[in-house]
Design brief:
With 203 residues, this protein is α/β, with parallel strands linked by helices. It has one domain: Purple Acid Phosphatase, chain A, domain 2. It has six helices and ten strands; from the N terminus they run E-E-H-H-E-H-E-H-E-E-E-E-E-E-H-H. The chain is globular, with a radius of gyration of 19 Å.
Length: 203
């Protein structure tokens, strides 16, 4: 499925109503109420009613229905480990997936709450966008993946064009990256793991 839209945004890990996230991620808010209100304000300042927002999980600790009603845009949720909600709340999202591969404005993208070590079409220009790690995972300059969580992007959704600019540097690096060598390394590592278990079960 390919979507062609003028305004597409990505985000993750808003954690509405999750008081302990303030401490876990050192968020710059005194109370969870202050965080909730600021996240809504920042979201609606840049997202318009007909825009598409891919939310890559951990939308809220509870009361998903309450918070989705306050946000602009058509929200496509890729569920995280905290996104447990009833049917009524689920119906407020434009789409819900546990994992999604989609072409957006001609770009192949793998969307998952959790960061992946590899993904479909990784060597053919695809991207991987994720959340869950709240900015603590060091991103590689040779790997086309990006944490779109609010802790990384000033507590607001990030536009497709911004991600595209970020990925340009990686694509330039890919021109000189020795993918054949990397594949040989991957195969060697996999063989080593398989050999370990083969020897183990022989005993």
């Amino acid at each position: 499925m390919e979507l062609l839209v003028n305004n597409t945004f990505f985000t993750a890990d808003t954690h509405f109503e999750h008081a302990r996230i303030l401490e876990h991620c050192n968020r710059p808010y005194d109370t969870v109420t202050e965080m909730n209100e600021d996240l809504v304000k920042r979201w609606n300042a840049i997202v318009k009613p007909n825009d598409i927002v891919y939310h890559l999980g951990d939308f809220a600790w509870r009361d998903h229905y309450k918070w989705i009603n306050q946000l602009n845009g058509k929200v496509i949720l890729i569920t995280g480990n905290h996104d447990k909600m009833n049917v009524v709340a689920k119906e407020k999202f434009f789409e819900i997936h546990t994992f999604l591969e989609r072409k957006i404005n001609g770009q192949e993208i793998t969307l998952c709450h959790y960061p992946l070590s590899t993904f479909n079409k990784i060597w053919h220009g695809a991207w991987h966008l994720y959340g869950h790690v709240h900015g603590v995972r060091k991103e590689r300059d040779d790997f086309p993946a990006c944490d779109v969580g609010v802790d990384v992007w000033d507590f607001q959704p990030v536009h497709f064009d911004v991600i595209q600019d970020k990925m340009k540097d990686i694509k330039e690096f890919e021109k000189t990256f020795d993918w054949k060598l990397q594949m040989d390394i991957n195969r060697a590592e996999l063989f080593g793991i398989n050999q370990y278990y083969l020897e183990k079960f022989k005993k």
